[in-house]
Amino acid sequence: MTHSLDIDGLRAFVAVVETMSFSKAATRVGRTQSGVSLQLARLERVLGKALLLRRQGRVDGLTEDGRTLLPFARRMVDLNESAWRAMTASAVTGRVRLGVPADFLDMDFPDLLRRFQAAHGGVELDVVSDVSDVLRAKLRDGGLDVAFFKREAATGEGDAVARQQLRWVGNRAASPDLDQPIPLVLFPESCAYRRAALTALEDAGLRWRIAFTSPSAEGVRAAIVAGLGLGVLPKTCLDGDVMDVGGSALPPLSDVEVAVAFAPTAGPAARFLSEHISRGLGL
Q1: What pLDDT was estimated at residue 88?
Q2: Helix and strand tally (H, E) in the chain?
Q3: What integer pLDDT is reported at residue 90 of this predicted model?
Q4: Rounded to whole angstroms, how far apart are CA atoms 211 and 215?
Q5: Cα three-residue angle 116-119-124, rounded to 5 degrees
Q6: What does the alpha-carbon distance between residue 62 and residue 14 come to, in Å, rounded to a whole number?
Q7: Cα separation of 64 and 239, whole Å?
Q8: How distant, in Å, are the alpha carbons of 69, 72, 125, 176, 188 from that of 99?
Q9: Do 128 and 135 contact (CB within 8 A), yes or no?
Q10: Helices assigned H by DSSP within 20-131
Q11: Residue 141 belongs to a domain with what CATH number?
């Protein structure tokens, strides 16, 4: 009888072990937290063994079976990556000017680029990180070959590759007072998250004020954790420091799509890179 272990499940297992957190593992592998939990549950079901120790919903270490599996899982994930690189190493050459949203840097994106460059030495990368409207403008003006960006669902140029569920977020002590203008921590005006937040508040007739603006995901997150105000981030960004504070008090937020678009002059290298990114981040 033939037995097979799913490589995505093993990758999720390794990520959870190395981060000791489902939310951080989800960011690393580019999945939702529930998606990572589902992959782990499926892997445990196939093996018929518990792999993780859990306490109050948190990872608390490895079982004996988990410790046995871990070195095999790491080798299998590494072999999978090595095989992929070996089969595609000489497939593309050229220069690619790539644009990505700021929050890609919170995922496994930098390491993903490093692995791509190691495997495809004939491709020269020029990467820009900015808010989505700026990236779209650069693409239209010929400054980029390929761009990933955020947009309102089913609108605008490009092809949708993923959908993000947005959440109102704050720190552990956050408690929205709807009788006062809601302090907001947001990306600049050209950001789809910002538009979703302000549209929802305006439609609900709630007052608001901008307390902090930053073009970087790190800056927005730091301000939220410091308690400067509430923000809007994808559900996958939730963890012990940045928490869902929406409940029934704040209005629901519309979903945002991640889309990719190419310049008319984009060559095979740009399309190959976009596929590598989409696959690597689980888009």
Answers
A1: 63
A2: 9, 12
A3: 59
A4: 14
A5: 60
A6: 11
A7: 27
A8: 38, 36, 10, 35, 17
A9: yes
A10: 22-29, 33-47, 64-88, 109-119
A11: 3.40.190.10
Q: Does residue 2 form part of some domain? A: no
* Residue 118 domain flag: yes
Indicate the pTM of the whole model: 0.64
203 within domain boundaries: yes
Mean pLDDT, each 10-residue run in order, the chain (283 residues): 85 88 77 84 93 84 93 90 71 87 77 83 90 90 94 78 89 88 92 93 95 90 94 86 85 91 90 84 65
**Predicted pLDDT at 116:** 84
What is the pLDDT, as a whole number, of residue 229?
95
Cβ contacts of 82 within 8 Å, gap of 6 or more: none
Single-letter code of the amino acid located at 201: L
Could you tell me if 189 and 174 lie in one domain?
Answer: yes
**3-state DSSP assignment of residue 203:** helix
- Determine the residue type at 106: D
The predicted pLDDT at position 104 comes to 80
Domain that holds residue 198: 166-254
Residues composing the chain? 283
Phi, psi of 83 (to 5 degrees): -65, -45
Structure-token match 């596929």, residue found: 275
79 touches 38 (CB < 8 A): no
* One domain, residues 108 and 72: no
Q: Which amino acid is at 122?
A: G
Q: How is residue 63 written in tokens?
A: 């079982």
pLDDT at 105: 73
Q: Are strands 256-262 and 159-164 parallel, antiparallel or unpaired?
A: antiparallel
Q: What are phi and psi of 55, to 5 degrees?
A: -140, 120
Q: Give the pLDDT confidence score for residue 112 in this predicted structure.
A: 83
